[in-house]
Write a structure and sequence with these properties.
The protein has eight helices and four strands; from the N terminus they run H-H-H-E-H-E-H-E-E-H-H-H. It is mainly α.
């Protein structure tokens, strides 16, 4: 699932979801249409079949993207910042939807995110990357107890002590404008 949903604007939501089925199967058009509607129903977009992406809210677009990712009944779904750009209420609903898909269909979700609240809801295991390398892998509880400085900074939302965030630097940058 792409961060911005990557829906085709010239196609309806149902056509967007049907596209991978059309491209990768030889099913009848009527069967593909039914499958697309089922996937949209799964993500709470029943009744939106003939809408275009421009008619959807940000959260609805994200759910349509999930429906399209589910089109071919995968075992694994990769998500790129699924809650990015969403308000906390809609993001929480999306987190619950991802968790529901995991438990209902036995899916494995690989989620790239910086949203710790989402991590706490979605993740069974977490892999923390730092400077292009795996720093640690564990459960949320294991990572919260970690003594690794970067992990502590990340979970406590504290700035990097080596970065300079002084007011004088900000003022100098404003003077340059």
């Amino acid at each position: 699932c792409f961060q911005n949903s990557a829906l085709f604007n010239s196609m309806t939501v149902a056509e967007n979801v049907a596209l991978p089925i059309k491209e990768h199967t030889k099913l009848a058009e009527s069967t593909i249409e039914i499958m697309a509607k089922i996937k949209l129903d799964l993500v709470g977009l029943n009744g939106c079949y003939n809408m275009y992406p421009s008619q959807l809210s940000g959260g609805m677009k994200k759910r349509a993207g999930i429906a399209r990712a589910m089109a071919l009944d995968p075992e694994i779904i990769f998500y790129d910042e699924p809650s990015s750009g969403l308000d906390p209420i809609v993001a929480a609903g999306l987190d619950q939807l991802i968790r529901k898909m995991q438990s209902t269909f036995g899916l494995t979700s690989v989620v790239v995110t910086h949203d710790l609240e989402s991590v706490k809801i979605i993740a069974d295991r977490i892999c923390v990357l730092h400077n292009g390398k795996i720093l640690t892998i564990g459960t949320i509880k294991e990572l919260e107890r970690s003594e690794e400085p970067y992990i502590q900074q990340f979970f406590n939302r504290t700035p990097d002590p080596e970065e300079s965030y002084s007011t004088s630097t900000i003022l100098q940058d404003e003077d340059a404008v």
